[in-house]
Design goal:
2 copies of one chain form a homodimer.
Chain A (H helix, E strand, L loop, with lengths): L10 E6 L6 H11 L3 E3 L2 E2 L14 E2 L2 H9 L3 E7 L2 E6 L1 H8 L3 E5 L2 H10 L4 E6 L3 H11 L4 H15 L7 E4 L3 H16 L6 H12 L1
Parallel strand pairs in A: 1-7, 1-8, 2-7, 3-4, 8-9
Antiparallel strand pairs in A: 3-6, 5-6
Helix pairs in contact in A: 1-7, 5-6
């Protein structure tokens, strides 16, 4: 029977969004409705109220981050608002090798790095339904000063301009819709002919036998 | 608010499959779970038991088909197993213009024609879980002689070889899964950045305002 193992190689999904757009909530719900592996990024920025080490990020200090870099244990990294953000290498390649779907939650700069390293990856850009909504969400999070909020908004505006470089754009208006759309995109990508080399050769062999 | 009208231009979906693979059943279910427009093909082949004129195909005679061709009312056509199969032009462009999702159920030759005419279209190839299953399904349809079944199997084998030219491959093993997968592919394609010119400019303008 065909299609039991469409491809031995997993799917790498890059998910980016301006901060405050709700990508953590989206990802948490996505995890509940389909089997994905989340790669947790490592950062030197301070932990915010409500965040958990090893869940939202691995929160480390700069010397530790530098040592990881020297030991080539960081897949890609970027410096953003004065802090380092990096993707630990270990798990990602292993998961992909065993055919799993790996989701990287990553800043726009990091997204571009990953696309270069993994041209076969799929990139999704989550956008807020409007900048006013984004500002409101940042304000309600209330972990930051007005100055920090304005600085985040400035960064968000410039991040939004990276949208055209992504394969898909999903508007995070209703949360459940955004999750369902991302789930659908991942599901669909798995059926791409270019990702179905094994299935394709089975189809052809079947037809010839 | 963003995303209410992601693109003014509709999505053209080409669905092909070897005969007997169940594409009519799949399409009938797909119509029930998402808004699509089905373009009904026109053919000169005789109607089979259980088929309905204007539902499965428009069944016409050869002089009528030739007149349609002369009047440029056929988008594309192909001759297959001694009969003509064509796509009437009228509805397709109109539906696409109003932003609808149009599904063309079409033979592999016709599929290649449509992809040339509409490079922006999405093509899906539905395959049976195995050639034995396909033969069994053709036999159970029992509208055809053994000779006809063997001739259809030969054609099916050669049709399967067109699979690599399609964007997506979906295995029609469990019917509901095949329908759900096709629905997901269509949904995902609507979120492609390259199809979201309007959304993208809204995003950028929003970020600049």
């Amino acid at each position: 029977m065909l299609g039991n193992n469409q491809n031995g190689q997993g799917l790498l999904v890059v998910l980016s969004a301006p901060s405050g757009c709700g990508k953590d909530t989206v990802l948490a719900l996505l995890e509940k409705c389909m089997p994905i592996r989340r790669s947790i990024s490592m950062t030197t920025r301070p932990i915010r109220p409500g965040e958990q080490d090893g869940v939202d990020y691995y929160f480390v200090d700069e010397p530790y981050f530098q040592r990881m870099l020297q030991e080539d244990k960081i897949l890609e990294y970027t410096r953003y608002a004065g802090n380092y953000y990096g993707t630990p290498r270990t798990a990602v390649d292993e998961w992909l090798h065993t055919g799993e779907t790996v989701v990287l939650k990553i800043e726009v700069e990091g997204g571009a790095n990953v696309r270069r390293l993994y041209p076969d990856s799929v990139s999704i850009f989550l956008v807020p339904p409007g900048m006013a909504v984004l500002e409101d969400r940042l304000r309600r999070r209330s972990s930051e000063s007005e100055e920090e909020i304005q600085s985040r908004m400035t960064i968000a505006r410039s991040e939004m301009k990276h949208a055209p470089q992504y394969d898909y754009i999903v508007v995070n208006d209703r949360l459940e819709d955004a999750v369902e759309n991302i789930r659908g995109i991942i599901q669909a990508e798995k059926h791409k002919t270019c990702r179905s080399a094994n299935l394709l050769s089975e189809v052809i062999n079947n037809a010839e036998s």
